[in-house]
Every structure is written in C-alpha cells, then in structure tokens.
Amino acid sequence: MIPFISQLSAAEQQMWLEALSIELPNENIVLASDVAPEQRQLCTIAIVANPDITTLSSFNNLSWLHSVWAGVEKLMANLQSSDIKITRLIDPMLSQTMAEAVLAWSLYLHRDMPIYAKQQQEATWLQHQYTPANERRIGILGLGELGCESAQRLQQNGFDVMGWSRSTKNLPSISTFSGQEGLLAMASRSDILVCLLPLTAETQGLINTELLEQMPKGSSVINFARGGIIDTDALLHTLVNNHIKHAVLDVFDQEPLPTDSKLWQQPNVTVLPHISAPTQLQSACKIVANNIIEYRKSGQLPVCVNKAKGY
Ligand code: NAP
After folding, report:
1. Is the CB of residue 144 below 6 angstroms from any atom belonging to ligand 1?
2. 136 is an active site residue
3. How far apart are CA 151 and CA 167, in angstroms?
4. CB atoms near residue 294 (< 10 Å)
5. pLDDT tens, 230-245?
C-alpha cells in the first residue's frame, strides 16, 4: 500500500489518486486519511505533495518519499536529519513550463511593458530607446533542471545569457559563474537577474542589499524560486529609490501574500500568485510511476535529494 499524503483539497486529492492508480495498476494507492492507524506502519513508500508533518510522522516506517513538487525545502526542514530518502519531481515538462515563464517575463521587462502600461494610464505618448536582445544581459541564479532549460530558451531568443551555480558548468554560448566572487561579478553585469535557486540555509536571503546594489542601476529582478531567497526589505528599498527598476515576484515568504504586504502597492512590482511553473498532473504521475516501477523491479532508487546540500 502506498499512501498519497498532501494538504490539497478533497477534489484535487481524488484527481491525484485516480491518475496515480491508472499509472500504477499493480500498486494499491490510497489517500492518507483512508489508512487506519494500525496499518500505517506497513507503508514504506509514500507519494507526497507538501504533506502535513504530523500526518507524515504517523507513517512511522517510511524509507522513501516521492514528492510530486520540485521544491523540497519544507520536507528538508523536517526530515533533513532522518534516514528517509526523498525524491523530488524532475520533469522535463516542468522545466519547459518554467523556461516559458522566464522567457515571457524577461520579454515583459526587456520590451518595457510596465513603463508603456503606466504611460497609457496617463495618456502619455513617449517612445523609449529600444535595446536589442543581444545587448540585454540576463543572469540566472541556479543552473539546475529549471535554470539550464530557461538559460537555453533565453539564449535561443537572442539574449546575452549568464548563469551562476554551486559547481562550475560549461554550457554552449552561456557565460557561467560560481562562488561568491562569481555571484557579484554576474550580478554587476545583469540587466535582468532571474532566481531559480532552491531555498537552503545557504541561499536564504542571498539576494540582499549588497547583491542588489551590485546590479546596474535600472536593472530588474525576477524571482520564480522561493520567497526566502530575497531579503524583501532590501528589495523594497532598492525599488523605492529606483536602483532596481522593476521586480516580478511569483513566490513569497508567506503565501498567499498577505493583503497588507507593501509589495502589493509598490508600483514597480509585479505580484504573481505562484503560477510560473505548476506541476502537470499527468506528466508528474507518469514520472513518479516509472520511478516506483523501476524500484520494485531493481531495488534502485532514482536520484534522491542530497540532504547535506539541502536540495
Ligand atoms: P535543481 O535542479 O536542484 O537546481 C538547483 C540549482 O541551484 C543548481 O544549479 C545548483 O548548483 C544551484 N545552487 C543550489 N545551491 C546553491 C548555492 N548555495 N550556490 C550556488 N548555486 C546553488 O533545482 P530545480 O529543479 O532547477 O528547481 C529550483 C527551484 O525552483 C526549486 O527548488 C523550487 O524552489 C523552485 N520552483 C518553483 C516553481 C514555481 O512555480 N515558482 C516551480 C518549480 C520549482 P549545482 O548545479 O552546482 O548543484
């Protein structure tokens, strides 16, 4: 028996249950709430979507969790010191969806859409100088599954693309950086800085005053990763004094973003409700199912989260 443990609505849980059961006809997939307390210790594998930790802990014999989300920071916060192996969703379709979002919002900033939208409200006819894409430098923080695909999509669309990661990378036509020095060097050349890092102890508050002030005056920030990677007060300060021209934010410390957050009212901020790359149910179920089938066949787990690194 494999429980599906999540805090999704009853209707959403039912959709996941049905789709997973179709992909795993030889497994008994059940909702966590339908597993009696005395049966819970029989479960060694669970499929999870942002599970409630109390419910997760009641399954006290788990050895492997497969998440249907790509980010695992909440699981890490609770299970980093446990022996439970964690696999997160690695789905090419998700990477393509994110690359599409990165391209869309980079174009939004590149073609000055926030400025022209504001000018229309004021009935202002004013043409700003056009910058060709190959002169627009875009730095990507994080060159993993999502960052690499996004960097390539931007590069294919003519942008001057750079990327920063923990380990050094060699990507065709993309300048790559690593380390603290590399971070500041890339930031100082980025007209648009896109965050696609995981939230870990090392990346918490990484986009801070020092980094933002290192960026060229009039540059912009896109955060599609996790809210905690940006120091919000530092960002607001640089937005108010117009050092940073615009920020597109899809993720926040607290979600939904509280109605009294200053970010809602800040004119040079675009607030998005965590929509840049939603998990695609059918595609995710196929990937989870293939991993479980392979594990049953060979005893081999797919790539698991590196708990020492936290991602
Ligand atoms: P990933 O494959 O694990 O890639 C993470 C990248 O960040 C890697 O390049 C890694 O470097 C780099 N990195 C991590 N810690 C670093 C550090 N301290 N210094 C420098 N580089 C560091 O993750 P992913 O699948 O691309 O996903 C990234 C994040 O996107 C997820 O964790 C999640 O939070 C977020 N996400 C958001 C949405 C949304 O809808 N907004 C959807 C899905 C995911 P190495 O390559 O050297 O390891």
Report:
1. yes
2. no
3. 16
4. 13
5. 999 999 999 999 999 9
Say what the pLDDT of residue 3 is.
98
Question: Does CATH place domain 93-271 in 3.40.50.720?
Answer: yes
Catalytic residue among 40, 66, 226, 246: 226
This prediction's pTM: 0.97
CA of 196 to the centre of ligand 1 (A): 5
**Helical packing angle, 281-298 and 10-23, nearest 10°:** 50
Taking each helix axis from N to C terminus, what angle separates 281-298 and 92-110, rounded to the nearest 10 degrees?
A: 140
Give the C-alpha distances (Å, rounded to integers) separating 103 from 24, 44, 191, 254.
35, 41, 14, 26
Mean pLDDT of 205-216: 98
Residue 134's pLDDT is what? 98
CA 85, CA 64: separation in Å to the nearest integer?
5
Pick the CATH number of 2-91+279-298 from 3.40.50.720, 2.40.50.140, 3.40.50.1100, 3.40.50.1240: 3.40.50.720
SS3 of residue 66 by DSSP? strand
